[in-house]
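Budget justification note: compute hours in this period were largely spent on complex prediction jobs such as the one shown. Inputs:
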Amino acid sequence: MSDPALGLTMLALIVIVIMMGFPTAFTLMGLGMVFGYIALYDPSHPWLDNRVFDLMVERTYGAMNNDTLISIPLFVLMGYVMERGALVDKMFYSIQLAFRRVPASLAVATLIVCTFWGIASGLVGAVVVLMGVIAFNPMLKAGYDVKLASGVITAGGTLGILIPPSVMIIVYAAVAGQSVVKLYASAMFPGFFLSFLYLVYIIGWALINPKIAPPLPPEQQKVPVSEWVRKFAQAYSRNMMVGLLLAAVMPGKAFAIENDGRRLSYAVIWKNLLAALFPVILSAVTLWGIWWYVVIHQQADTQATAGMVIRQQQASPATASPADQDKPQELGSAESDASSDQPQEAEGVEQVGTPEFLKQGAAAPSESGPPQGFFTYFWLTVAATALLLLWYYWKLEAESFELLKLLISSVMPLGILTIVVLAVILFGITTATESAAIGSAGAFILALQAGTFSWERMKQSVFLTAKTTAMVCWLFIGSALFSGVFAILGGQQLVETWVLSLNMTPIQFMILSQAIIFVLGWPLEWTEIIVIFVPIFLPLLKHFQIDPILWGTLVFVNLQAAFLSPPVAMSAFYLKGVAPKHVTLNQIFAGMMPYMIIVIICMVFMYIWPGMTLWLPNYLYGGG
Amino acid sequence: MNIQKFLLTADHISTWAGKAVAWLIILLMTTVCVEVFKRYILNMPTAWIFDATNMMYGTLFMMCGAYTLAQDAHVRGDFLYGSMKPRTQATLDLILYILFFLPGVIALIKAGIDYAGDSWRIQEHSNVTSNGPAVYPFKTVIPIAGVLVLIQGVAEIVRCIVCLKTGEWPERLKDAEEIDVVEQQLAGSTYVDEESRKRAIESVHEIDDAAHARGLGDRAVEEVGRHPKGEGK
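Corresponding output:
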């Protein structure tokens, strides 16, 4: 048998053996070993002296030293801890109350919780089962259409594997040799765009046909207001903000109010005032963060990166604010996403040029100061936010105040942690590994603070992390050996020449490759697809001049569609397991169909308008 | 039963080693956090941190390979597998263990011993930074992890044979599972009614099994003893 023929046999065998259900990591290892031994057999050497052994151990050591994969255990740990720390049903309850006036409020709340949960973890099964218990029955009781209710849970549940920080993206980055950070940035918009499309679909459908999602009865729409808040509002003002401010100055009347047998104290008043001010604080911090990143941080960055390439200062309308000159650079080599071992060096470099000299002229948008019109838009946003806040506080009565407190206690911790982790990665302030470590430490702190964590749960998270990491990384070892042998046998070459001989246009190739991955997504899990089959396509992307980042993001979205396609979608079976008896699998599948079509529409959008995927990575890290 | 004792002993060895090493993740997290603080706030980066974190991560996942195998948590294409009878599963597994698993893992051990041996001989140090930490203990992890996986693999082969004889999969050690989170979340819930909560907690493992078999293996739900994926019981 010729070598390429051996290679193709190997490829055919791997598909068959995977379908037979043997652990994939060892299938890959064994197949790679056997075929590699035959391929590299040299009769002049003793039989134990075969180069395939070197290949094997080098690939293993490569996986052990892979500085992309190292962030997997940390992100996985973060997910497991968050899952155990955050209380989903409280979150669902408060979000549902917040959206009580929106059509199909329960479905909207389900989708939002799923999106949040998706940020925290990537487990499809657990989300679907949980939401099936927490949200599905209430929706059915409220008279929601079965298809609407089941669709939103299954579709929302699969979002988790797409929305960063997702393990799938790290594995793809390791396989494709791309930067994790860039891939995260590129998956950001499609991920949220997809959940936005879902949202539009749900609300749109409910508006057109209100019968499918009747509003909750009024008594369930009421926000429970505690006794002291009611008395407090009577004593001071109907508006809680005014009331709390007054109470902070003249607390006499407040001290007369009893709460659980104890009189109100200063501490309680201040705590509640702080809670009431939370929206202001949040908007201020967000806006300041944007300002800091665009105006201050980038100037500092420019100094750091442009030190080597000193260019003439160009006249440009977008000049930097004076702030950057007296603001010394605090963050060593902020931009580098490789693990920079020598920050000292970067700092040395940045002192070479004078700030004025280096301010302008670098090629990437992220290095050329605030984009044109930034200041106009920024101040417009500030004004709009201020108006919104003013309007909000104008109407802040006892009920909305209680709702705000509910939201703060249930959603805020998880929300803040995820935003911080994502922002820190995306803005290139630390590397993905470092953000993951901070994120998991943060998850521990939040879980402890929420009082939901115990030694038992910590042990569980640690052991589950170990198992998941071992599963992914052993698979990676297996596939590294397999693809090495596949290339040595010339299988890869054969596939490439064959595909090129088909004379496809890039768009044809794009559709073909995505279609193959879509079909593979039916029986297989994402791990196997990304680790075994994606590497076969990767070298071909260059021939067709397709950006591996765009292609990869399309794959991530594509797998969403694959995991939602009947009759193989696992999430449907999870939901069926917890659903009441009268709900049939066919109803669930019928409910999933529209979402599958939405995913495909999303992919078409992404293809026609690659800017949606590529704008953010290009803006943050410079040219593609 | 002696065979059962052997199986559980093998499981214990793998599980113990895996769980002991699993705590490296906490160490890894702490190390990176401290390093972030030192580098970005104090401006005092540590040179050997890159090697140290890599070693922790590498040791972590290599040593947990056997543990993962003992819990049957390595990903498998369980689309068809999940709907087969235990005997068919065992036959397939037995053949494939001998055909693919043994050559692959034995080769890993052999190559690992040579590789680590070379490294010990020259007392290799990392060259990522000058004066880097010693690499030979880290490379020794490869053959050790290989041997652990091999022992567990032999136990799995014995499991297949037992299953062929009795028609039922022998038991595994109990351990934390991903789907357990449902139980924990529901136990702490305040807005879910008692009855549906209880029902969900009781049936969650069966639901997990059935979902992996995609409804093909209806018997899968009734039968205790075979667990397609990630289900160490």
